[in-house]
Design goal:
Layout (H helix, E strand, L loop, with lengths): L3 E4 L2 E4 L23 H6 L5 H24 L5
Antiparallel strand pairs: 1-2
Length: 76
Amino acid sequence: MTDIVEVTGAARVLSPCTGVCRLDPATRWCLGCGRTGDEIARWTAVGDPERQVILDALPPRMAHLAVSSASKPRPL
C-alpha cells in the first residue's frame, strides 16, 4: 500500500521515515524505514516512480532486519 498526499494538485509518494534514523551496521539499512543512507539523502530529489521502487524494496529489508535483530543475543 502506497501512502500518497496531494501537493498543489499532484499526488506525491510519502516518505516512509519513522524518525528512528539509525543505520544497521551490517546491511547499512535504516532500522526505522529500511532505506539506505543514499536513498534517504536522495528522497526529496527523486520523482514518484523512483520513490515507489524504493518503497517496494522496503518490506523484505524490514523483514530481514527483524529476523536479524531477533537472532542477536540480548544483554543481561
